[in-house]
Amino acid sequence: MPGDQHGRADAAPEPADGRTDRSGRRRQVLERLREAGRPLGSAELARDLGVHPNTVRFHLEALLAAGLVERVDGERGVPGRPALLFAAAPGMDRAGPRRYGQLARALAGALDGVPDAGERALEAGRAWGREAAATSGEPAEGPGDRPVGALLTLLDELDFDPVLLDGGPDHNRRVGLRRCPFLEVATAQTSVVCPVHLGLMQGAVQVWGGDVRVDRLHPFAEPDLCVAHLSGVVAG
């Protein structure tokens, strides 16, 4: 599974749900609410920004959906329906780009070369696998190929694009991983990232029970494939 031909990681930002138009009118609406230090109505916002109230309302709805703005009831000291006001939500902006790949590279690089880095990575992966399996909704136990099917489902949900392969020389099952969601990091720090993936699979099948075991992972066994070797279930 070759990496980017130019060796670049994070070629594109990792967007979060609810991303807003950070360079346009929506940003102006949000900044005005932050500057005000108090809740504002859509009419006041429109007047301050010199735009139509419908324009402000459109962007307020998007900011509400992104969790950047909150609705606030106006004072009830006057007759009639309280005015609907808006305030900037407390906390950091959750709508910006994410750079988890850079964090992963930094952490993997810190472990790379440490004497017990592989074992630490393996244990971290097992903990991840146990947590993922416990929340996957798959049956906890089952004979035969049942845990294998659950493993394929989990790996697919995690974007490894798994495929069940014919048995190897020992006639046991093998699982091919046609995609690596951490490809750039894995190619740079194989000794750290790949044990995490092996541990992920081992931890998951441990939760599901049965005789299936994930014995080893052959990283980049083929240019476009990593191969996990299973035991306890024989290929048909």
Short characterization:
The protein has helices spanning 25-36, 42-49, 53-65, 100-111, 117-134, 146-157, 183-188, 190-208; strands at residues 40-41, 69-73, 84-88, 162-165, 172-177, 213-222, 225-234. The protein has 236 residues and is of the alpha+beta class. It has 2 domains: 25-88, Arc Repressor Mutant, subunit A, CATH 1.10.10; 100-234, Trafficking protein particle complex subunit 3 (Muramoyl-pentapeptide Carboxypeptidase, domain 2, 2-Layer Sandwich).
Indicate the topology.
Blueprint: H1 25-36, E1 40-41, H2 42-49, H3 53-65, E2 69-73, E3 84-88, H4 100-111, H5 117-134, H6 146-157, E4 162-165, E5 172-177, H7 183-188, H8 190-208, E6 213-222, E7 225-234
Helix pairs in contact: 1-3, 2-3, 5-8, 6-8
Structural features, described:
The chain is α+β, with helices and mostly antiparallel strands and 236 residues long. It folds into 2 domains: 25-88, Arc Repressor Mutant, subunit A (Orthogonal Bundle); 100-234, 2-Layer Sandwich (Muramoyl-pentapeptide Carboxypeptidase, domain 2), CATH 3.30.1380.20. Helices cover 42% and strands 18% of the residues. It contains 8 helices and 7 strands; from the N terminus they run αβααββαααββααββ. It has helices spanning 25-36, 42-49, 53-65, 100-111, 117-134, 146-157, 183-188, 190-208, and strands at 40-41, 69-73, 84-88, 162-165, 172-177, 213-222, 225-234. The strands form 2 sheets. The protein has a 4-stranded antiparallel β-sheet with strand order 4-5-7-6. The chain has a 3-stranded antiparallel β-sheet with strand order 1-3-2.
